[in-house]
């Protein structure tokens, strides 16, 4: 007998998610944590001190409508140093990120909620189920997989910011405040493993995990007042002297898009992004021959069409959740 997906959620998760969602929707807070795997996140579980000056956090920002195996593979992808990237900054990475964040924006620069879509709460519930798969030892392998010594240091958040540049600024401010909060700073000050004055709070550094279609939107001038302003904002976002973010982007093969057209799409985005690709601020990776073809829109279309072919595109627990909540039974427009 299949266990109902709702019973796999932590007690009180949905009611808490609703409270913080309403808080963000009302403009009372720009970003809120819906779930953390332990109270000291983003510090690693069981550790009271982070010995390096940088705390590397991956941010998987998506609509999660629904999460697919492509989301899981991208979330499990190792940091840039494991992909053979020889940039100076990549040497501070270990075999995995120090912490991982699944992020849902209640506003999107290019997408709006349509009839038949999963609600925000349903997406957050599926994100929590995805985080459980992310913690599992049954790893989704990619060409560049590295062994991961740290599992389970995961959080889920919602944000009211439609652009990546804005998300970066908001998240960095939020994380710096959280790292300095009493619950974290007290654990650092009380540790017996350091000498007085020998330790300071680490600086959060964000790596955004994207699909290629999202990368194209990031470098599209139509989302900015002008191309000049776009370049200025992106340099502030990606420059090591400013917000110092990175982008890890999965190659994508879209169903129904011919190979030549796909190469043209890649070429247009890379032309604009070449400055950042050349400097190692953007890294393109493979997440798997099958996974790179999967998309949430394909899942929704196949569910609406009937049959069970869509189940191969998601994890078993997400498939169970979709069926249990009768999601996507009608085509979305």
What does this molecule look like?
This protein is an alpha/beta fold and 333 residues long. It has a domain at 36-79 and 96-110 and 173-182 and 201-294. The protein is built from ten helices and seven strands. The protein has helices spanning 13-25, 69-76, 120-135, 164-179, 182-189, 212-218, 227-238, 259-278, 296-305, 316-324; strands at residues 31-36, 54-61, 99-105, 154-159, 203-211, 246-250, 282-285. It has a seven-stranded mixed β-sheet, with helices on both faces. The chain is globular, with a radius of gyration of 20 Å. The relative contact order is 0.18. The model is unreliable at 85-91, 138-150, 189-197 and 257-262 (pLDDT under 50). It catalyses: beta-nicotinamide D-ribonucleotide + ATP + H(+) = diphosphate + NAD(+). InterPro entries: NadD/NMNAT, Rossmann-like_a/b/a_fold. Keywords: ATP-binding, NAD, Nucleotide-binding, Nucleotidyltransferase, Pyridine nucleotide biosynthesis, Transferase. One of its GO terms (molecular function) is ATP binding.
